[in-house]
Design brief:
- The chain is an all-alpha fold.
- Among the domains are: 3-66, no CATH class; 67-264, no CATH class; 467-550.
- The chain has helices spanning 3-6, 27-47, 50-86, 88-95, 104-110, 116-126, 132-153, 164-172, 181-193, 205-216, 221-231, 237-252, 259-264, 283-296, 300-307, 315-327, 331-334, 358-367, 370-382, 391-404, 407-418, 424-434, 438-447, 451-457, 470-480, 485-498, 501-514, 522-532, 541-550.
- Helix 15 (300-307) packs across helix 16 (315-327).
Length: 552
């Protein structure tokens, strides 16, 4: 069934000043013409200037003719501002859970499953999220292209419906596990639908549908639906053919994948056998993502300032705020000014997911517990549910190996980063250090402001680690090197969190002797007074924490 039988054509208004004829006008253009004509009339009466009137009329003509493009450009600007100013941390979050490699092997690996080309193209774009403003520009371009392709497929009077695909996907991307391969696949399917196939060319779909399904995935159903609307029920065979292609693809090429995933998409969602949530941009979730982004870029002041304005009562939040306080030497003073989740508020035990332990891994690294930091980062990377690697985690793993002197193992990971775009420069610099002669290599690592410090404060001998006794480990770490002030703060802080009153009173002189404080920190003063008065200290922040823990 042709388009003109489904949607009667509507002529568009191309003139603003001419006489109105009895034809079917585009409603939006007609309304804008009336408003601008009134504006011109008012301008002539108020100003009395022909130049103002001419300018207004010219603007009216331009807006009348190009208002649709104006809305498209406005949407593109909105997308750019949304991601670059409102949610740059969301782009950083997506970038850190993939490692795009500029190799043919990587390309063919992605192309080995249905929807792989859309996935590869999505990862290609996501790698530019390393600089969020570049990612925001690319997302704006993608959404504008998607909207313009929808315009090509809709009648003129239904122009506003062309914004539905980008707006819907914009909302779905509020789920952090929705991958960019989904918007990319939708764009490819719409582009394919815009290609005219008439007459005998319609039978090209026999070959086109299997190839396009392998490249884009099940989103190709969008193409089939559009073709059905364009050609009518005589093209119903394409729907059956696509179902057959998916079943045969599962049976012959993808038997190791669940049938449900083959039919609904292997590359659109990070978590297997699950689908996007329609919750949009949940504030608490994105607050934690924002914190992680600030940790990655060492923006400690921003974390502390934001913590006083909004809190998320989770262990992740407590770990992040306490890490920021420790880096500014404020943990002893202000620790209990903020929410503390319990005895895991400084470092949480290992959780098998790709996000929860990021603040803990960063804390271990800065404390000098390099082996634990490497283990956490490796486990985080292996917990990425779609099997991708992480540029951020790989970089940290290399740094841990350099501190420990495991140079041959580090070279394997350096090889990977050298095949990426934005980590390549750093990887080449590290390779020069690792491949230098032994004396030069050790000198350069020891002179490095971060790696050299970690070599001084880390444990030199292996030992059995127990998370339940991490307060003792913090104490041993401080005794190993008295310059490790962070270990001292975490040692006292961990005993306070656990309510180890005897230990706090016994080791508080350490804070006075080695902490470098001119006077006892306010947080410690409050805790000691609370302990001495057995919790009966009105207004005590530590007393409030103890009471909350006792109510659990």
């Amino acid at each position: 069934m042709p388009w003109n039988t489904l949607f009667p054509p509507m002529e568009r208004c191309v003139s603003f000043v001419g006489r109105m004829r009895s034809i079917r006008w585009d409603y939006a253009s007609q309304t804008m013409a009336q408003l601008l004509r009134r504006f011109c009339f008012c301008s002539n009466n108020l100003v009395g200037s022909k130049s103002v009137s001419t300018f207004a009329k010219n603007m009216a003509i331009l807006l009348t003719r190009y208002w649709k493009w104006g809305l498209t450009i406005l949407m593109g600007i909105g997308v750019f501002l949304f991601w670059s100013i409102g949610y740059p941390h969301a782009l950083s979050y997506q970038e850190q859970y993939q490692l795009f490699l500029w190799t043919t092997d990587y390309f063919w690996e992605r192309l080995s499953i249905a929807g792989g080309f859309a996935d590869w193209l999505g990862e290609f774009i996501v790698q530019f999220y390393y600089y969020p403003w570049i990612g925001a520009v690319l997302l704006a371009i993608l959404f504008v292209v998607m909207q313009r392709l929808a315009v090509c497929l809709l009648p003129s009077r239904w122009y506003l419906l062309s914004f539905m695909p980008p707006i819907l996907l914009w909302w779905l991307m509020g789920d952090v596990n929705v991958l960019l391969s989904l918007p990319v696949a939708v764009t490819l399917a719409l582009a394919l639908a815009c290609v005219p196939l008439r007459g005998r060319l319609q039978w090209v779909d026999v070959v086109l549908i299997p190839v396009a399904w392998w490249l884009t995935g099940p989103v190709l159903w969008l193409y089939v639906i559009v073709r059905l609307l364009q050609r009518g029920w005589r093209n119903l065979w394409t729907a059956g053919w696509l179902v057959a292609v998916q079943v045969m693809g599962y049976a012959w090429l993808l038997p190791q994948w669940p049938f449900q995933m083959v039919m609904t998409g292997l590359t659109y969602y990070r978590v297997p056998m699950q689908y996007p949530h329609l919750h949009g941009y949940e504030r608490d979730v994105y607050e934690l993502i924002w914190q992680d982004c600030q940790i990655r870029h060492e923006q400690w002041d921003k974390i502390i300032k934001r913590a006083g304005q909004y809190e998320v009562k989770t262990t992740f939040w407590s770990n992040s705020v306490n890490l920021a306080l420790s880096q500014k030497r404020l943990l002893a003073d202000r620790m209990f000014d903020f929410y503390q989740s319990g005895d895991d508020a400084l470092i949480m035990p290992m959780k098998r997911d790709m996000t929860s332990n990021l603040p803990s891994a960063e804390t271990y690294y800065r404390l000098g517990l390099v082996n634990s930091a490497q283990r956490y980062m490796f486990d985080i990377q292996e917990s990425i549910l779609n099997g991708k690697k992480s540029g951020r985690c790989t970089k940290r793993i290399i740094e841990c190996m350099l501190v420990n002197g495991h140079y041959k193992s580090a070279l394997k990971y350096i090889d990977l980063l050298e095949k990426s775009l934005f980590y390549r420069g750093w990887a080449k610099e590290v390779r020069q250090i690792v491949t230098a002669d032994a004396k030069t290599r050790e000198q350069r690592i020891n002179a490095h402001p971060q790696l050299g410090r970690l070599r001084q404060i880390r444990f030199k001998e292996d030992f059995l680690y127990s998370h339940s006794e991490k307060d003792k480990i913090f104490g041993l770490l401080f005794m190993n090197n008295h310059d490790n002030k962070m270990a001292l703060d975490y040692f006292i802080g961990e005993m306070l969190l656990r309510g180890n009153v005897q230990g706090v009173m016994q080791y508080m002189p350490w804070a006075q002797q080695y902490g470098g404080y001119r006077m006892m920190p306010l947080g410690y003063q409050d805790a000691v007074q609370c302990i001495q008065k057995r919790g009966d200290l009105p207004g005590s922040m530590y007393g409030a924490y103890v009471k909350r823990m006792m109510r659990r």
